[in-house]
Amino acid sequence: MKFSFSLLFKLFIFSISIVFLLLLVFGISYYTIDQIQKKNNLMDIGDYSPISTLVVPSNPKTRSKFPFVDVHSHHWNMPIMNLDNLVNEMDSLNMVYQINLSGSGLAVFSGKQDLMDLNLLKSVNNVNENYPERFGVFVNLDLSKIGRKNFKSNTEEYLENASKIGAIGLKIYKNLGLNLKDGEGNRVKVDDERLQFIWEKCAELNFPVLIHSGEPIAFFDKIDKFNERWLHAKERPNSFRPSDKYPSFDVVMMEQYNMFKKNPNTTFINAHFGWFGNNLKK
What we know:
The protein has helices at 5-39, 83-93, 113-130, 151-165, 196-205, 230-235, 249-262, and strands spanning 68-73, 95-100, 135-140, 169-172, 209-211, 268-270. The protein has seven helices and six strands, in the order αβαβαβαβαβααβ. The chain has two domains: 5-43; 68-275, Metal-dependent hydrolases (TIM Barrel), CATH 3.20.20. By secondary structure, it is an alpha/beta fold. The protein has a six-stranded parallel sheet with strand order 1-2-3-4-5-6. Helix content is 39%, strand content 10%.
């Protein structure tokens, strides 16, 4: 069949016309819907931000009466961060000390050990050279290599070097127990025996372990009108953990508790109230 530039050009113009018409129709439709909503005083629930009419005596507090420590902060750019502004903010709150849980920076998610080492070293050096009495730095681990030949020896060496550099603890991210898979594609449980040496090494190094396991319980529930985090699901659907892809909330929590029980000599800090801030008695 003979190639025709004329036919090709006509097809191109036709396609462009169809796309333009679709955009025009969608644009008119959305504009019409928006005008109807405004006319009827309707809005998306995400836009609802009422100002209370309640009139009561107020006494807002912008500074703590007592000095306090913030044990849960993330400063991914600490290797190059100017700490002056942060310290000024801390002083205004009467915060005397702060832990940066992200000592190894974003490099921990790249799987590149050399970048993790460099980030940790620069973070600690920045603190030591400027405000050694105001900050502590936790190290992070790349657990994606679990099960590989040198995983145990390399991880132990990394923790030992981190201690020598000046790190004072270990932060475990929530991918453990949720998204983290081993080389065979299996979910790595929080209490996986292949990680036992890490908790033992932390006890030896006197490293507290701040661990974030799971998510709020509502993130594991069905997303419907009864879910108190429905708006969160609408805005950030990837935060939720559907049962066809993830273990249940109870399963992840029990794995964490089992790991705690197995390591009585290790100090664990259970981040976010262990996701029971909504049920303090439990």
